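Following the same procedure, sequence and fold were stored together, as reproduced here:

>
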Amino acid sequence: MKKLSAMVLCFCLFVSVHACAAEMIDFENASVEEMEMFLSFMDDAQVDLEEKKNNQTTEEMCEIAIEELKNHWAKDRFFTQETTGYFQVLHTRVIYLDSSYENAACIKSIKENEKNSEKLLETCKKIFSNENGSPMIAFVECVLLTDCYGTAPYYVNITINNSVAFYQDGTVEVFGKSPIELFRSTAFITNYDGIIREITDMGSQYNEICYLK
């Protein structure tokens, strides 16, 4: 019975946190066993959520990434009053990273640069992990043409804010530059063995034109 009650409470929390908390969940009078059961369900749900996010298909990641890029470009006001907000996706690919290393995706590079291994490790952590230390598992990179310089009908690829990183904890982040390009220009390394696991080229599948103003 207690297990059933906990399941009902958990379901209510996901359906409507505020309504259920106010009307159905009496934490003050719940027993220790009921509270522990409830928390265990919450922990299981969090694990399942993170696993689901980490098992997103290539297509799902592309769709999420392009929406993130649109929101980022529209929100950060790259377009002036003189521009139309033209935004074109021409090419999309997904770069999967080898995130088996507990601190960063750079095993081989660190071994090949033993003299600067400590500095390189810090660079890896900074680029290939988020602020919570969760490793980047992949990033989506697009070729973008925009009229952010007001040059229509000649649309420019300024090669910034065109990548979206996916982390092991399920979070996503828009990058000003490709994480690999940041690594190359910061650590001066071009050997990506042990960093890049696979590249899936989506070609023109996600090509589109829209206006963000």
Observations:
- The chain has a mean pLDDT of 78.
- The helical segments are 2-15, 17-23, 32-54, 58-75, 107-112, 117-128, 179-187.
- The two ends are 55 Å apart (CA to CA).
